[in-house]
TrEMBL record:
The lineage of its organism: Bacteria, Bacillati, Actinomycetota, Actinomycetes, Micrococcales. This is Signal recognition particle protein. The gene is ffh. It comes from the Bacteria. It is found in: Cytoplasm. It catalyses: GTP + H2O = GDP + phosphate + H(+). Residues 277-290 form the SRP54-type proteins GTP-binding domain.
Length: 304
């Protein structure tokens, strides 16, 4: 039994000599394994097809290096191609020349936005910034309270429509666009150098929610719009990412719940269909469970 793609590819080549160039027959033998592994990792089918075609092209005629056998050589090509697609270098946040830098969060309900808001605030604070959190999710009962709790956990203030919303059943009324605008004005007045605007999601892509997010985007002109996506979302990653890309033209992606079983196929799909960089990963419910995204680590996760 070979579990990882690396193992399976290496095994495919076990009985073959390792001299000269990789042949088409050798490469074809591995393509099936690569396809299967990527589909297992929940990468969308069109993305898998294109990926495999690129690997094949790259592998054909490539000189087998002295230090690797052909199996290891293909593993290296697959790894390099994954890192390339996932973005090569890590992309850092763009900060505004004239503070405050405005960062807006968007994504489906339950994707992990409110949790991420706290984590991102904590991360930025540790880098010497003075963030303000703004609670514009007036859709989900308790979302404002949840952001206030996260703000307290990380020692970052929260601008909210009105304080004291504390019960599950109580919902907040108000205009989220006005709250966003007022929150940014508050940050400017109180000299916060970064504002993180949490917005409402729905369980599925919904025209009204998307319009609200687009309106908030237009009102506060964010420097970054981060699309938060649950890495366990599987094959629907493509459709969801496309809808948010069209709706709010996000500038970067945050993969949440990477502590779960997901192999990270969503990362590849989202990156492939939108071309937008993956910037951060969320890896648990704690405020410290947060990482700057590293394409090479994600490539290993998909391969292993
Ligand atoms: P929102 O609706 O997009 O604001 O989503 P929330 O931030 O409320 O997150 C939804 C649920 O997922 C909550 O129970 C969070 O504690 C949980 N959650 C968020 N991020 C992560 C993560 O990275 N890992 C795990 N295991 N759970 C998470």
């Amino acid at each position: 039994m070979f579990n990882s793609l690396s193992d399976r590819l290496t095994a495919t080549f076990k009985n073959l000599g390792g001299k000269g160039r990789l042949t088409e027959a050798q490469i074809d033998g591995t393509v099936r394994e690569i396809r299967r592994a990527l589909l297992d990792a929940d990468v969308a089918l069109p993305v898998v097809r294109e990926f495999v075609a690129h690997v094949k092209e790259r592998a054909l005629g490539e000189e087998v290096s002295k230090s690797l056998n052909p199996g290891q050589q293909v593993v290296k090509i697959v790894n390099d191609q994954l890192v390339d697609i996932l973005g090569g270098e890590t992309r850092r946040l763009h900060l505004a020349k004239n503070p405050p830098t405005v960062i807006m969060l968007a994504g489906l309900q339950g994707a992990g936005k409110t949790t991420l808001a706290g984590k991102l605030a904590r991360h930025l604070k540790s880098e010497g910034h003075t963030p303000l959190l703004v609670a514009c999710d007036l859709q989900r009962p308790n979302a404002v309270k949840q952001l206030q709790v996260n703000g307290e956990r990380v020692g970052v203030p929260v601008y909210a429509p009105h304080p004291g919303v504390s019960s599950e059943s109580e919902s907040v009324t108000g205009d989220p666009v006005a709250v966003a605008r007022d929150g940014v004005a508050e940050a400017r007045a109180k000299l916060h150098d970064i504002v993180i605007v949490d917005t409402a999601g729905r369980l599925g892509v919904d025209a009204e929610m998307m319009q609200q997010a687009a309106d908030i985007r237009a009102a506060v002109e964010p420097d970054e719009v981060l699309f938060v996506i649950d890495s366990m979302i599987g094959q629907s990653a493509v459709e969801t990412a496309q809808a948010f890309n069209e709706g709010v033209d996000f500038t970067g992606v945050v993969l949440s719940k990477l502590d779960g079983d997901a192999r990270g196929g969503a990362a590849l799909s989202v990156r492939h269909v939108t071309g937008k960089p993956i910037m951060f990963a969320s890896t648990g419910e704690g405020m410290g469970d947060f990482e700057v995204f590293h394409p090479d680590r994600m490539a290993s996760r998909i391969l292993d």
